[in-house]
Specification:
Elements lengths: L5 E5 L3 H13 L3 E5 L2 H7 L7 E5 L7 H10 L6 E6 L3 H9 L4 E5 L3 H32 L4 H11 L4 H8 L3 H15 L4 H10 L7
Parallel strand pairs: 1-2, 1-3, 3-4, 4-5
Amino acid sequence: MSVEKLVYIVDDDGAIRRSTSLFLRTQGYAVESYNSGVLFLEAAQTLRPGCVLLDVRMPEIDGVTVLERLRAGGSDLPVVVMTAHGDIGTAVTAMRKGAHNFIEKPFEQDTILQALEEVFAIAEQADAQRLTAAAAMSRIETLTPRERDVLEGLAAGQTNKMIARAHGISPRTVEIHRANMMEKLGVHTLPEALRIALIAGLGADL
């Protein structure tokens, strides 16, 4: 599943909202705009996956505070902040608070496109990794505790005999568990089984 190329523009400047929205739509993006951080935060829990283009200087609540509250609420929407020209200090603060990128106003069209494409590419990659890990773990969850012990042992580089000694069972029993484990994982070779284990993170602490 790919991340939808939807951009949320949060800026109190109506001219900026209109011109940026028009330009991004001509480039194939879907756009929703908000004229204040307050209104955006009120809608935050119901937003679809996308990217936030967030102005840092707004009345009522500034962009950095919006970003802080967005992250505190559990949202991982990628954020590109828009700062005044030369306002690197605010940009750095926003990055530390969880922004993915920043652009300076006034910005060229190519600049905003590049920033958004970079953020969407990162989001696509992260989404794919989460789904792959989730799919691998869903297979592993079909294993019995002993079959999982065998898989973890193999992922740690242990032989059948070493696994047998570690768990007080015979090598033949390990072979049976190994065969059942591979059948449940839907694989035919040890490298395939190990790949599933590593994707799911089983080898991380071994």
